[in-house]
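Weekly sync, protein design subgroup
Attendees: M.S., D.O., the rotation student, P.L. (late)

Item 1: inverse folding check
M.S. brought a backbone from last month's batch and wanted to see whether the design step gives back something sensible before we order anything. D.O. pointed out we never logged the input encoding, so this time it goes straight into the notes. Structure tokens as presented (262 positions):
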């Protein structure tokens, strides 16, 4: 029996990267997975991959910054399954720029996806979690950049720090006899995904004035010198989604091979 057998899970940004690994892992471990993303083609492919491996998965297009779409997504999950047990707020973007060169529009764009999107996930997901009366687990994907400042990624760092404390607030507000909902954050280190390639054209490391290569960053900043994989993060999400973490609430798991240990 899978570690999340019978649970209904929603994963945002589930088409690619870390979100796809999370959706696939939860599907493999017995959850019915609803994954959402801006990228319909890859979202459908990821869902089809989960089904081909014997799991249950549905893709729904979504921009996490749009509140009306959140209402529709949650209503559809309610109609299909009548419950929501696991909510993984994973969708996120990173915009790199020195503070003095960052436009207010870019600052707000990043804030909209990384903070508003996470807030809306909790606002609309929690009522359906409450409905079953059996609690649930919310996992918010922050970053090591949410634990310390990052030159060149100040706006990203600010959003990820906000996610960390928002997660703890949800944990306090929704724990206890009435809701029994747990909420925890995960702080990945340097993970090999396309997020590094998607940073705006001409983006440069504010300190080195050179394109960012995550492998170089990992070699320099990670004690093992290794780049992490989406699966490394998905494994931590699986623990938090499963009943094995039943006493873990308001906590943070750092998945960085020791980058933050020093
Ligand atoms: P990614 O770019 O590979 O995947 C992100 C997914 O989110 C994409 O499929 C994208 O289409 C989707 N997305 C973006 N904006 C969206 C929106 N408005 N609505 C819905 N979907 C949207 O990135 P990733 O590396 O897999 O990142 C996943 C999460 O992990 C992010 O929150 C990111 O900040 C965090 N993270 C990544 C790293 C890393 O090194 N890759 C490290 C720490 C934290």
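Designed sequence read out in the meeting:
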């Amino acid at each position: 029996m899978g570690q999340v057998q019978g649970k209904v899970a929603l994963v945002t940004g589930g088409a690619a990267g870390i979100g796809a690994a999370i959706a696939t892992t939860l599907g493999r471990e017995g959850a019915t997975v609803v994954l959402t993303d801006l990228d319909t083609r890859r979202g459908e492919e990821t869902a089809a991959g989960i089904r081909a491996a014997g799991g249950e998965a549905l893709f729904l297009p979504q921009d996490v910054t749009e509140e009306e779409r959140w209402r529709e997504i949650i209503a559809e999950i309610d109609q299909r399954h009548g419950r929501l047990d696991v909510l993984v707020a994973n969708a996120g973007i990173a915009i790199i720029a020195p503070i003095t060169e960052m436009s207010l529009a870019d600052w707000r764009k990043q804030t909209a996806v990384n903070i508003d999107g996470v807030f809306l996930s909790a606002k609309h997901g929690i009522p359906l979690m409450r409905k079953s009366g059996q609690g649930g687990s919310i996992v918010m994907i922050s970053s090591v950049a949410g634990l310390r400042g990052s030159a060149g990624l100040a706006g990203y760092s600010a959003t990820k720090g906000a996610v960390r404390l928002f997660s703890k607030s949800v944990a306090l507000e929704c724990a206890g006899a009435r809701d029994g909902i747990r909420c925890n954050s995960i702080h990945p280190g340097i993970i090999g995904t396309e997020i590094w390639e998607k940073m705006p054209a001409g983006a440069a490391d504010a300190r080195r004035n050179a394109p960012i290569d995550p492998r170089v960053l990992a070699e320099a900043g990670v004690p093992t010198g290794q780049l992490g994989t989406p699966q490394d993060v998905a494994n931590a999400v699986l623990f938090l989604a499963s009943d094995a973490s039943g006493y873990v609430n308001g906590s943070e798991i750092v998945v960085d091979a020791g980058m933050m240990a020093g």
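Discussion: Strands lie at 8-12, 32-37, 56-61, 86-89, 136-141, 181-188, 252-255. The helical segments are 17-28, 40-52, 67-81, 104-132, 154-174, 214-221, 230-241.
Action: P.L. to compare against the previous round before Friday.
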